[in-house]
Amino acid sequence: MSAIEDCRTAALGGHVARCENEGCGFTSIAYNSCRNRHCPKCQGALARDWMAAREADLLPVPYFHVVFTLPAEIGDIAYQNKAVIYDLLFKASSETMLTIAADPKHLGARIGITAVLHTWGSAMTHHPHVHMIVPGGGIAPGEDRWIAARPNFFLPVRVLSRLFRRLMLEKLVAAHAANQLKFFSTHAALADAGRFAEFLAPLKNKRWFVYAKQPFAGPRAVLAYLSRYTHRVAISNSRLVKTDGKTVTFRVKNYRVDGITRYTMMTLDIAEFIRRFLLHVLPKGQHRIRHYGLFANGTRVDDIALARKLLGVTAAAPMHDQQAIDAEPATTEPEPHTPTCPCCGSKMRIIEVFQRGQTPRHKASPRPPSIRIDTS
After folding, report:
1. H-type alpha helices, the chain
2. Helix axis angle, 43-54 relative to 219-230, nearest 10°?
3. How far apart (Å, rounded) are the C-alpha atoms in residues 356 and 10?
4. What is the pLDDT along the chain (376 residues), one digit of tens a residue?
5. CA–CA separation, 350 and 96 (whole Å)
């Protein structure tokens, strides 16, 4: 929280820039960013950089969005074992996709997956799930052809759900046997292997949630969409409505309701708001974005080159279509920058750099009326 609280304040230092036009002299102060991956202010630029790096991976095929969600019972113990269970969630969901896709009864091909971990619902409750973006097809076992998925259909979700359930439960039992799981408070009794087996037993007959959406309208729309998912945090500044020093009011979405009533307001005490936000801070070193199959880091370049060869296409053209980037409103705020003077359009030149905790010697100019100040 200290990193986010200090973000873009004098606590982190910054610089002073002044307009080169002597007749103008507009001066602005810019404070440094914390660069914390959980900070809603710092993810906009990272998302753009990530999107540019992934541009070369685009294939000219339909892309599908698949979501794997842990049952609430597993989510409860995941809160006490974030590093272990989040890792198992990645492994079980990716193995499920790769296994079913490789089965000749379904697709019979080696596919590529980009997976992103989210741990929250709209109200910032603990809700671990993985979003996967997958091209609609894959490379045949003999690596001599591209096998395309059926239009508007990738893999059967019921089959995916059953295998995901079995793999995740097996991995949980193995992790428990290896003493990798810790239990506290009301779950302390689950440290016993027998009690843990009893806890998992009802989940063997419960349907686990796997959701597949319709394919995207082109791979570039996929990239713009995914870049927002990869760098999203538990709540963006755009969802914050107001605070009175004791409570925080923010917008929430009820996914079970359609229409205008889907969006409502929620007010929480500040302590509860912060508690919910901190639920979604990942363990140190935990990767939120992972790549599998054709997109695995060790072989991605060669596999994508082979896929393009089999599809009969050349490398992806640079993305100049700003509409693809701006297809939906960004949920994170872009990095602030002042390349030109807001008063006269001349270049801004850095005249002072100040360190953490220092006060700049120069003062900022009053904002001209043409600059809009967002107070929402």
Report:
1. 2-6, 43-54, 72-80, 82-102, 157-177, 193-200, 219-230, 270-278, 300-311, 322-325
2. 140
3. 6
4. 565 555 666 667 788 898 988 889 899 888 776 655 555 555 555 666 666 667 778 888 989 999 999 999 998 899 889 999 999 999 999 999 999 999 999 999 999 999 999 888 888 888 899 999 999 999 999 999 999 998 888 999 999 999 999 999 999 999 999 999 999 989 999 999 999 999 999 999 999 999 988 777 776 677 767 666 666 676 777 778 888 889 989 888 876 667 677 788 889 898 888 888 887 777 777 788 899 999 998 899 999 999 999 999 876 544 444 333 343 333 333 344 446 888 888 888 888 888 887 888 888 888 765 444 443 3
5. 53
User: How is residue 121 annotated by DSSP?
Assistant: -
Residues 102, 105, 108, CA angle at the centre, nearest 5°?
30
Beta bridge partners of 65: 133
Residue with token string 């935990």: 286
pTM over 0.70: yes
